[in-house]
């Protein structure tokens, strides 16, 4: 029996995350994923391809039906234990429209919290500290990341500058020396 995952009307990255959650929960099987936009279809196809699953997408009256099959390959995926640090220097992702940037940051943090590969640390600097304080739209995602063992720190000088130290909701307050040490000891640092 084919499992159906109805993702019509869902915004990116939710269709891929729903698909991933299902396939993570089974050893082998097949699912029909239904989406209503080409971007979601393409992202789900890329997910299937990157995981070695068989897939076929069909356009049907404005909807996209994607059949994905996961076979039990009796193989073990090797994971490398690397220390990844993400430095968030702004409360928005990318340049341009502020509303879009805020939505992209929220989407990024949610997708990161659903990822299999977790960073060891997320460091918030400059206006990025606003994401760890009252009024932040990403607190739930940060809570999930923290629950999965990710160290979350905010720059104390930055919190003071924005007068947000008393509004901190998640993580620890850090200083530049500790931030530099954390970044220097990482195998890879990503700056947002």
From TrEMBL:
SUPFAM superfamilies the UniProt entry points to: DsrEFH-like, SirA-like
Listed InterPro entries: DsrEFH-like, Se_metab_YedF, Sulphur_relay_DsrE/F-like, TusA-like, TusA-like_sf
Superkingdom field: Bacteria
PROSITE patterns found in the cross-reference section: UPF0033
The UPF0033 domain, residue ranges: 5-29
Any one Pfam family match given in the protein's UniProt record, by short name: TusA
Similarity remark: Belongs to the sulfur carrier protein TusA family.
Designated name of the protein: Sulfurtransferase-like selenium metabolism protein YedF
Organism annotation: Clostridium algidicarnis
């Amino acid at each position: 029996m084919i499992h159906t995952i109805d993702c019509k009307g869902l915004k990116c990255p939710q269709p891929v995350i729903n698909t991933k959650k299902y396939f993570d929960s089974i050893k082998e099987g097949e699912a029909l994923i239904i989406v209503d936009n080409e971007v979601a279809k393409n992202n789900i196809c890329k997910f299937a391809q990157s995981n070695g699953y068989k897939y076929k997408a069909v356009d049907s009256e404005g909807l996209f039906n994607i059949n994905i099959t996961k076979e039990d390959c009796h193989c073990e995926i090797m994971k490398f234990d690397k220390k990844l640090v993400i430095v968030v220097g702004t409360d928005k992702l990318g340049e341009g429209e502020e509303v879009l940037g805020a939505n992209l940051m929220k989407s990024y943090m949610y997708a990161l919290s659903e990822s299999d590969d977790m960073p060891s640390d997320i460091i918030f600097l400059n206006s990025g500290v606003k994401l760890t304080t009252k009024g932040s739209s990403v607190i739930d995602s940060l809570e999930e990341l923290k629950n999965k063992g990710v160290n979350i720190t905010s720059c104390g000088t930055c919190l003071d500058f924005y007068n947000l130290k008393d509004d901190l909701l998640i993580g620890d307050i850090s200083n530049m020396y500790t931030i530099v040490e954390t970044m220097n000891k990482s195998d890879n640092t990503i700056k947002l």
